Amino acid sequence: MNPLLAGYIHAVGRRKTSVIRLYLRQGSGVFQVNRRPWKEYFPEEIYQLEILRPFEVLGIDPGRYDLIVYAQGGGVKGQAEAVRLAIARALLSEDESRRPFLRKAGLLTVDARQVERKHYGHKKARKSFQFSKR
């Protein structure tokens, strides 16, 4: 493990093809994704609100924590939802009494849906070419 990350709580979040490694500790509010400020990495407000949802549900100020996030794969939405899951898992491992609140808000449930592959003889996974009888 990286010695710079000693003292952090490690959590992993996954969604679609996105994989997030998150390191959380009590701190001064530093929040970086792939070594960039998180608001620069996720500029759309809808994703910012989604990411901060675990803090909102628990009534915790996100400025109390330092978060270092490494994101791989997928798109912006999948990564944002994976970060949300990783934050919820990290906050849970910090204090197990938070489980009922996070569970009720649906923040600990892994959304395992994946894109279905394209099938032979079809335009897409399920869409077919137009059928003509004659």
How would you briefly describe this protein structure?
This protein has 134 residues and is of the alpha+beta class. It has helices spanning 38-41, 45-51, 53-58, 76-94, 99-104; strands spanning 9-15, 18-26, 31-33, 36-37, 65-72.
Notes on the structure:
Helix 2 (45-51) packs parallel to helix 4 (76-94). The protein contains 5 helices and 5 strands; from the N terminus they run E-E-E-E-H-H-H-E-H-H. The chain starts with 8 loop residues before the first strand and ends in a 30-residue tail after the last helix. The protein has helices at residues 38-41, 45-51, 53-58, 76-94, 99-104; strands at 9-15, 18-26, 31-33, 36-37, 65-72. The model has no long low-confidence stretch (mean pLDDT 94). The protein has 134 residues and is α+β, with helices and mostly antiparallel strands. It has one domain (3-104): Ribosomal Protein S5, domain 2. Strand 3 and strand 4 (36-37) form a beta hairpin. The chain has a 5-stranded mixed beta sheet with strand order 1-2-5-3-4.
Q: How many strands, which pairing sense, and closed or not: the largest β-sheet?
A: 5 strands, mixed
How many angstroms does the end-to-end distance come to? 66 Å
Number of strands: 5
Q: Quickly give the CATH architecture.
A: 2-Layer Sandwich
Low-confidence stretches: none
Tell me, what's the shape?
A: elongated
- What is the CATH C-level name? Alpha Beta
Structural class: alpha+beta
Q: What is the count of DSSP helices, taking H or I runs of 4+ residues? A: 5
Estimated radius of gyration: 18 Å
Could you say how many structural domains there are in total? 1
Mean pLDDT: 94
CATH topology: Ribosomal Protein S5, domain 2
Order of helices and strands: EEEEHHHEHH
How much β-strand is present in the residues? Answer: 15-25%
